[in-house]
Amino acid sequence: MENLGMKLLLADRQDITRAGLLYLASSMNLHDIACVDSKEKLIGALDNAGGNSVVVLDYTLFDIRDIDELFILHERFLLAHWILFSDELSPSFVRRLLATSDHFSVVSKDSPLQEISEALRAALDGHRFICQQTAGMLAEQPLAQVEQPNLTKTEVEVLRCIALGMTTREIAEKRYSSFHTVNTHRKNIFRKLGVNNVHEAIKYALRAGLVDSAEYYI
To answer: Are the C-beta atoms of 89 and 106 separated by less than 8 Å?
Structure first.
């Protein structure tokens, strides 16, 4: 059953797109709707709604700097569900997005109205939705082909050790390196991946196929 207490926020700068989404939302009997055309207004609307919102976001045309800034907004408004509405998202971007939280959905602007309606209903129910076009794009690109940050061979090996549950000291002993050297590699890995903790680094290693989920340390 739809969460009728949720607000629908249309974060899009194109008049024609907003008009189409408003028409679709109205046909679905959704009435608590607001349009915002800047990050500042989006944050204000989320604050006013207590974060309890479904945000339809044209990510590529909105003034959100990068995926890390989007993740910061997600952490700030944990109740919000985000539907990224775009045709220009790369497979690596989508994989990272979906691995971070089930509060992110992806819908192509080429999606039929029925599919967009399904995405809205799923988000209102608290469920993720991936449109067929995006699902097909992900299926066509194997994990081994996912774009990766420019990690050195040593950094990849250290990341794999981290994903396998090894401590910095254990990695240093295995590699016959100093604790300081491994810790420097660790900091460089986190910086290049744009992550802040081991949990996020492990999720990246799993997504990129650097470690198999069957051997992942739990």
So the answer is: yes
Q: What global pTM score does this model have? A: 0.65
Give the residue from 206, 180, 181, 205 showing the smallest Cα distance to 193. Answer: 205
d(CA 32, CA 11): 14
Q: How far apart are CA 175 and CA 196, in angstroms?
A: 24
| CA 91 – CA 139 distance, rounded (Å) | 9
**130-176 tens-digit pLDDT:** 999 999 988 886 554 555 567 888 998 999 898 888 999 999 999 99
Residue 168 is encoded by which pair of tokens? Answer: 């910095």
Which positions ≥6 away from 161 have C-beta within 8 Å? 170, 171, 174
Write phi, then psi, for 64 (nearest 5 degrees).
Answer: -100, 125
Task: Tell me what pLDDT residue 199 has.
Answer: 80
The Cα 124–Cα 136 span in angstroms is: 24
